[in-house]
Specification:
Mean pLDDT: 95
Helix content: 25-40%
Low-confidence stretches: none
Distance between the termini: 66 Å
Order of helices and strands: EHEHEHEHEHEHEHEEEEEEEHH
Radius of gyration: 20 Å
Number of helices: 9
Strand order of the largest sheet: 8-9-10-7-11-12-13-14
Length: 345
């Protein structure tokens, strides 16, 4: 398989490109970035044969590609996905799918029309602890799901020691801040575990000086199934990478997952049976040596299998563009939600 990559940022460098290079079927033959100079420097550093100033140039000048992997700012996702699909090239694009629901739905329609494989980067589904939780839920071990609490905290932009806020806080490039950067991941986990979300309310906080997008997003939602969920996403609050915690309260047990590179093994899964209150750690498959890239590597591996017509290792875990469009609709509803407040007398 001949592959191209678009984007020269940290996630491409540390996770997506290594995941591609680890696939024996894949040969990375080209890269594109914001401009020719950036692409050229990245190609030289990473040993990629050719560099291009854009995805369009790579498609038109680089020969036939089988797969492209996109890790660009949010506002460029939709055009990149569309260019790949229209060229008949399978595409993996980082989340979110787009910056608005209508565009996301149009991408779903285009993927159906072209029948080209596509996936969106909700890779944390592939974490072994979350896979174990999903299996227990499907097997009925947890009983009827009543409430799910989700959070993703990682203080990458904390004013005391984080990096400077980049394009992720720029409304010209991103529709939402921490909600889109982190909240999209855990909204997808909620959808994957409990099915579609029907209603949402939200509150947003802007903490950083001159913040234009949310630094902390707090959501309350209802599922079509009748279950309820809460979500807190922030790039200021304490957490490791990715800083995900899931607490699923079922009629038979409470299941808890932590995915945090500060933990031994980078993950933990615990189940507490109802009325017993004796928590028990659950054995889960080991993560790879690099906790930061492990889930992305599993995701890329399954998608390559799908493109080649083979059975993915992790069953039906692969996120679809339909999944991405649902997450987009939930986030848009949250941005437009008007929470009702009652004064406390």
């Amino acid at each position: 398989m001949l592959c191209g990559v678009v984007g020269a940022g940290n996630w491409m460098r540390s996770a997506l490109l290594p995941a591609l290079l680890a696939q024996k079927e894949c040969k990375v033959v080209g890269c594109a970035a914001a401009n020719a100079a950036e692409a050229g420097a990245f190609a030289q550093e990473m040993g990629i044969p050719r560099a291009f100033s854009s995805l369009d140039a790579m498609i038109s000048e680089g020969g036939k590609l089988d797969l492209v992997v996109l890790a660009t700012p949010d506002h460029a996702h939709a055009s990149g996905i569309a260019a790949a699909l229209n060229a008949g090239i399978a595409v993996y694009c980082e989340k979110p799918l787009a910056n608005d629901p209508q565009t996301a739905r149009e991408l779903v329609d285009l993927a159906r029309k072209t029948s080209v494989p596509a996936t969106v980067g909700f890779s944390f589904r592939f974490n072994p602890a979350l896979q174990a939780l999903q299996r227990d839920l499907r097997a009925g071990r947890l009983g009827e799901p009543w409430l799910i609490e989700l959070s993703e905290h990682n203080p990458q932009f904390h004013p005391a020691g984080g990096k400077p806020l980049n394009w992720k806080g720029d409304p010209a490039m991103a529709r939402g801040g921490a909600l889109f950067e982190y909240g999209s991941h855990v909204i997808d986990l909620a959808n994957w575990l409990l099915g579609p979300i029907a209603r949402v309310s939200a509150r947003f906080q802007k903490i950083l000086p001159n913040a234009r997008l949310d630094d902390i997003a707090t959501l309350l939602f209802e599922f079509r199934s009748g279950a309820t969920g809460t979500l807190v996403a922030s790039w200021l609050l304490d957490g490791g990478f990715p800083g995900i915690r899931v607490r699923l309260h079922g009629s038979k047990a409470l299941a808890e997952v932590w995915v945090d590179d500060r933990l031994p093994g980078g993950q933990r899964y615990q189940v507490t049976p109802t009325l017993d209150q004796t928590p028990a750690d659950q054995p889960v498959a080991a993560m790879g040596a690099d906790y930061r890239s492990d889930a992305a590597s599993r995701h890329i591996g399954d998608f390559v299998a799908r493109v080649q017509g083979r059975q993915p290792e992790h069953g039906t875990t692969l996120p679809s563009l339909e999944d991405g469009a649902h997450v987009q609709s939930v986030m848009e509803a949250a941005l437009n939600a008007t929470a009702e407040w009652a004064d406390v007398s």
